[in-house]
Design goal:
The chain contains eight helices and seven strands. It is an alpha/beta fold. It has one domain: Glycerol-3-phosphate (1)-acyltransferase (3-Layer(aba) Sandwich), CATH 3.40.1130. Strands 1-7-6-2-5-3-4 form a seven-stranded mixed β-sheet. Helix 5 runs parallel beside helix 6. The two termini are 27 Å apart. The model has no long low-confidence stretch (mean pLDDT 95).
């Protein structure tokens, strides 16, 4: 019986997210039409995330956001165990550019919107990954932050343990000389697991922002130490939240 209700709940969640996307889509198209307006997708993302999670009864708890200055640019680095992680950054304090896997562009309607406002990357191709990083930095301009999942996808086989981090997020932060912000998402993989036929569980979604890590004056030789520092901060928080 519990499995049956989870199926019904999952269908309801899907309907809510799709209907909201359809209602907001004309506004996304208006924003897409003018690059100068792309930063305003922040408001649509925020509406989508807040209204959708409210309607499906998933409470949210955002911690540490008082450490973030919405007027500054950051590179947000988060663990990545669920597609819900993208929705979570609808609660970011400013407009962000996502770097997501190329398969996202194939999703009807959403894929076009995502590929126009954000950046898709074929992580199997080093050349494509290099170009995607520079494209993301270009899309950031001077007033958008960057969201990257440094594991390079949902790769961990031992969730909530993370996979090894790749260099992209740390290169971006050093190239822009802007702070890195570790972000821990301890619950999304339980709410929306990365399985072939996922069933959604109703649970509080927590999002934990950690203290920004400055990169001013750092160079590419500092990437290994930065990766270790960010990995340990997120990993320790995930362990504490279990």
């Amino acid at each position: 019986m519990r499995y049956f209700f989870k199926q019904i709940y999952t269908v309801w969640c899907a309907i809510v997210f799709i209907v909201l996307l359809l209602l907001l889509y004309p506004f996304f198209l208006i924003i897409i039409a003018n690059k100068a307006w792309h930063k305003h997708c922040y408001y649509l993302n925020k509406i989508w995330a807040n209204v959708a999670l409210f309607l499906v009864g998933i409470k949210t708890e955002v911690e540490g956001i008082e450490q973030i200055n919405a007027k500054n640019q950051y590179v947000y680095c988060s663990n990545h165990f669920s597609l819900l992680d993208i929705v979570s950054f609808g609660f970011a304090p400013q407009s962000v550019v996502y770097v997501g896997k190329s398969s996202l562009a194939k999703i009807p309607l959403f894929g076009y919107m995502f590929s126009q406002l954000h950046v898709t990357v074929n992580r199997a191709s080093p050349t494509n990954a290099y170009k995607a990083l520079h494209k993301a930095i270009d899309k950031m301009g001077e007033d958008r932050s960057l969201v990257m999942f440094p594991e390079g996808g949902i790769l961990s086989k031992r969730i909530p343990e993370m996979s090894r981090f790749k260099d992209g997020a740390f290169r971006a932060a050093i190239m822009k000389q802007i702070p890195l912000v570790p972000v821990s998402l301890p619950d999304n993989w339980i709410i929306l697991p990365d399985t072939r036929i996922p069933l959604i569980s109703r649970k509080k979604m927590r999002m934990i922002y950690h203290k920004p890590i400055p990169t001013k004056g750092l160079n590419m030789e500092d990437i290994p130490a930065l990766k270790t520092k960010v990995f340990d901060i997120i990993s320790n928080e995930l362990k504490n939240q279990q």
